[in-house]
Write a structure and sequence with these properties.
By secondary structure, the chain is an alpha+beta fold. The protein contains 7 helices and 17 strands. Strand 1, helix 2 and strand 2 form a beta-alpha-beta unit. The relative contact order is 0.14.
C-alpha cells in the first residue's frame, strides 16, 4: 500500500515538474550575418563602382538593382524563422554594400519596411568601394554608440620564390597604395546599445580576401583577428561583464590562425574561463561538414558569429547564446549545372541571391 502511494506521489510530482517546465516562457532574438555580394546602386559615386553602372562591365541596371533588393529582402525577412521563432533578425550584420544609400533602400523594401530597421554604416577606405554595416530593430535595440575602427596593414616586399602559391580567383582583390604599401580594406564596425535593457556590443567584420593565395594573404587576416581581439579586450577592460558578439565574413575558417590564435576562439563552451573568452559555434559546424560558401568544389564556413563568455554562462534571466545555424533554403541554392548545390548568385545574367549563405545565432532569455 505504501509503495502504491509512493508511486502515485512520484507520478504527480513529475507531472507538476513537467508542467512547470512547459510553462516556462522565453524571449528569443535572432542575430544574423549576410554577405550581400555586390550590393551596388546604379549611381556613379566617387569610388570604384564603374563596373556596376549601366554602361559598365556588369551591365548593371535599375531593374536589376531592384530585383537584387527584393531578393535580399526575401532572405533577410526569413533568416532564422521557424516554429519557435517567428520574427526576422533583430540584428543583421552585412558586408559588400556600396554605401549607406543601398541599405536605406533595402530596409524600405515591402518585406522589410514594417520591421523598422535602423542602419549603422561608415564609408571605408576599401579600394573596391564596399563596406560593412549593421541593421537593427529600433523597437528592441537602443543605440548608444558606434564607431569604425580602421585596420592598418601593409604589404611587405615579396621576394621571388621558386615555388609560387597558386593564386585564388576572386573579385575581392587586395589593393595597396604603391607609395606607402598600405593595403586598404574594410574597417571593423563597433556598435553598442541596449537590447531590451541589456547592454550588448557588436563588431561587424569583412576581413581581407585570399587574393594572391591563402598563405600569402594570411598575415592580413591575422592582423584583422588581432584588431578584433584588441577591441574585445578594450570592452572587457571597461566592463568586466561585457557581452560581445563578433560576426562577419572572415575569409578564413574557424580553424585558421586568424580566428583560433589571434582571436582565441574556443571550440567548446566548457573552455570559456573568463569574460574575454570567445565561443565559436561554427567551428563544430564546419567539422560536421556544413558550409556557408563553396570554392573549387570545397565547402567552408567563412561567415561566422562568435559570442563572449558572458553570453554563454550568464543567468537564465539574462540574454544567453542558445544555438546557431546556416540559412540555406532550397530557393537559395543552384539546382543545375557545374555549380549545383552552391549558393545561387545574383549576376548580370541570373536573378539570384548571394555567393554566401547567411548565418545566425539565437539569444534567449527566460521570461518570468
Amino acid at each position: 500500500m505504501r509503495i502504491t502511494k509512493l508511486i502515485a506521489f512520484l507520478i504527480v510530482l513529475f507531472a507538476i515538474q513537467d508542467a512547470n517546465a512547459q510553462a516556462k516562457k522565453y524571449k528569443i532574438h535572432t542575430v544574423a550575418f549576410y554577405n550581400l555580394e555586390n550590393l551596388f546602386d546604379t549611381i556613379n559615386n566617387p569610388n570604384n563602382d564603374e563596373e556596376w553602372l549601366p554602361n559598365g562591365s556588369q551591365n548593371w541596371t535599375g531593374a536589376k538593382y531592384k530585383r537584387k533588393l527584393q531578393n535580399m529582402a526575401r532572405v533577410i525577412a526569413e533568416i532564422g524563422t521557424n516554429d519557435q521563432q517567428k520574427e526576422s533578425p533583430t540584428f543583421l550584420g552585412v558586408c559588400e554594400v556600396e554605401n549607406r544609400g543601398v541599405l536605406e533602400d533595402l530596409v524600405k523594401e515591402p518585406l522589410l519596411i514594417d520591421k523598422q530597421y535602423g542602419v549603422v554604416h561608415f564609408d571605408s577606405p576599401d579600394k573596391r568601394g564596399i563596406d560593412v554595416g549593421l541593421l537593427y530593430k529600433k523597437k528592441n535595440f537602443t543605440l548608444t554608440s558606434y564607431t569604425n575602427v580602421p585596420l592598418y596593414i601593409y604589404k611587405d616586399e615579396q621576394k621571388n620564390s621558386k615555388k609560387e602559391e597558386k593564386e585564388e580567383v576572386t573579385d575581392d582583390a587586395i589593393a595597396e597604395d604603391l607609395s606607402s604599401k598600405r593595403v586598404y580594406t574594410r574597417d571593423q564596425l563597433l556598435v553598442t546599445g541596449f537590447l531590451d535593457g541589456e547592454e550588448i556590443n557588436i563588431i561587424v567584420n569583412h576581413w581581407p580576401s585570399r587574393s594572391g593565395g591563402e598563405k600569402k594573404s594570411s598575415p592580413f587576416r591575422e592582423a584583422a583577428g588581432a584588431l578584433n581581439r584588441k577591441i574585445m579586450d578594450s570592452l572587457v577592460k571597461i566592463n568586466p561583464n561585457a557581452k560581445i558578439i563578433t560576426m562577419g565574413d572572415l575569409n578564413d575558417g574557424a580553424y585558421n590562425k586568424s580566428v583560433k590564435v589571434e582571436i582565441g576562439a574556443k571550440l567548446k563552451k566548457t573552455e570559456l574561463q573568463s569574460a574575454g573568452d570567445i565561443y565559436n559555434p561554427f567551428e563544430q559546424m564546419a567539422k560536421d561538414g556544413h558550409a556557408s560558401l563553396f570554392y573549387r568544389d570545397s565547402g567552408d564556413i567563412f561567415d561566422q558569429i562568435m559570442v563572449s563568455e558572458r553570453l554563454v554562462n550568464d543567468e537564465p534571466t539574462s540574454f544567453k547564446y542558445w544555438k546557431a545555424g546556416i540559412y540555406n533554403k532550397p530557393y537559395m541554392i543552384q539546382t543545375t549545372g557545374q555549380y549545383k548545390g552552391y549558393p545561387l548568385r545574383h549576376s548580370a545574367n541570373e536573378e539570384g541571391f548571394s555567393d554566401h549563405f547567411p548565418v545566425y545565432v539565437y539569444l534567449i532569455k527566460e521570461v518570468k
